[in-house]
Predict the structure.
Amino acid sequence: MAKVAFLGLGVMGYPMAGHLDKKGQHEVTVYNRTASKAEAWTKEYRGRRAPTPREAAADQDVVFCCVGNDADLREVTLGDRGAFEAMRKGAVFVDHTTASAEIARELQADAHKRGFDFIDAPVSGGQAGAVNGVLTVMCGGEAKPFSRVEPIITAYARTCTLLGPAGSGQLAKMVNQICIAGLVQGLAEGIHFAKRAGLDIEALIATISKGAAQSWQMENRYKTMTAGKFDFGFAVNWMRKDLSICLAEARRNGAHLPVSALVDQFYSQVQKMGGGRWDTSSLIALLDR
């Protein structure tokens, strides 16, 4: 049993922190920018809430974080009331935010100067994965602190892997999003084509999902894509944020991402249709207009 804090109780962080209480049996302190969300969490789970990241992080063994972007992450770590001011020596800060590899390296360097460790650990699996405790966690950092936090992370993760030094977790998440972007566009085009061709979609998917075209997206999104229902899941706004990180990193390392760049533009068109909060499978809405 460890003393842990969780900063950020959004659609991912709220259930993740809950699993630390229910499955991990840890002593949990939570912080959220909107205090009412933290208050609701403490009514549903055991634990306490803190008014600032600094107070949440004080005297903790591990501090977890899942916020929106680089700027949010910098605010809760290095801001005036940031967690890094209160992290005790020997503790570990685990960041589940999907952010840049650059800020992961920056925060690890700062943490080491202060005498504690930092692991970048973005997740995949969406809100359903967080609620059901079956996320995939991609980590960057050093082996010793990773070995300390991995058993705790298993409270909400099916897979947790150390992939290299600081920033490697964020780079792996970029690969994850690059693969998904092209896959969802291909699935959207395939279903759009099948509808125009007059094929029985149920029979079609039952057949091709047993072959080389099979994917998680196909099995979990074909029905809603066919029905044109997108008011759930991983939002287009979030995917565009993630793809912007991928494209910026590609400009730095010289990688060529023509499909990712194109799909990002398709998502910008979905946003113009009013679909910023739609699930990413809404790419088919551009084709079915």
Notes: The CA atoms of residues 32 and 196 lie 47 Å apart.
